[in-house]
């Protein structure tokens, strides 16, 4: 926590706004709108997952529709496609940003068109905080007239060409889950450019009540709005977001130093000056060809020292739940990343002592 959260929570109690609406919800939305600074409108929701669900509904995704999603991501990027009875179509990563491969994306779109099932949306993720190839993916989206849902659940504070992640999709999604760069204990947001989309998102996420003195429903509603208490935590966290980004980026500099003389390890970094990552998580790829040390050896060695690390996201096309889904990609980039990649401790609150312990353990793995 940053320290300012309790004053917003206390305010909610003092004013008796204990509900999924109230001044903190409105305040959190305007804090986020100001941060993204692109004339966007925000609907604060109870999770990033519910924001993706609502985004798909706003794009009128129906049972049997195809929706494209990158494979190297958390299952929450794709689960809402299934909630709607639609079909996820998974796409491999490219090696620079680990996000949507433009070549495989276009193949998948052409395949859909040939089957008379043009995909309804492209879910583009900025994985681990690294923006996807924004211009290339936008070009394809425009060429085939398929909207982008930008999943920036992990990328709040990241930028591409000095513009904030969360402003690139036709609809964009943020998350404030406990593990994200800032948290509202649980929460998410839908970011839209069109005020009508925001109004519709709020309508659907508050049980789709028609205007009438009694309860009247012509559409299927959901209970997806963010609690005013959680929004208070979010508002407090917004006060420290810039600081959190600097802390995470400092972690990246720390890991660059740790591995600077270790040939086996490539640290996942911005591919050019166009990219600015919040480095939500720091990741390395371990190529065992030099010293014979592989990912699992490093992970288990860290575990012995009570230091948690994890393999990268298991690509969704390899997950049992999605085993019948289509997949496009010829180079197994995501699968190779999964086999050789490791997420390292990346909390904003790592102490110098923590970092010393992590550094010496990691360097020991490579006999340094
Ligand atoms: C966390 C996350 C989500 C889901 O957000 P919740 O708020 O946890 O529902 C979606 N996509 C990605 C890439 C995520 O990391």
UniProtKB/TrEMBL annotation:
Extent of the signal sequence: none
GO MF entries: transaminase activity
Alphabetical list of InterPro entries matching this protein: DegT/StrS_aminotransferase, PyrdxlP-dep_Trfase, PyrdxlP-dep_Trfase_major, PyrdxlP-dep_Trfase_small
CDD domains: AHBA_syn (cd00616)
Domain of life according to the entry: Bacteria
Keywords on record: Aminotransferase, Pyridoxal phosphate, Transferase
Family note: Belongs to the DegT/DnrJ/EryC1 family.
Name the UniProt record assigns to this protein: Pyridoxal phosphate-dependent aminotransferase
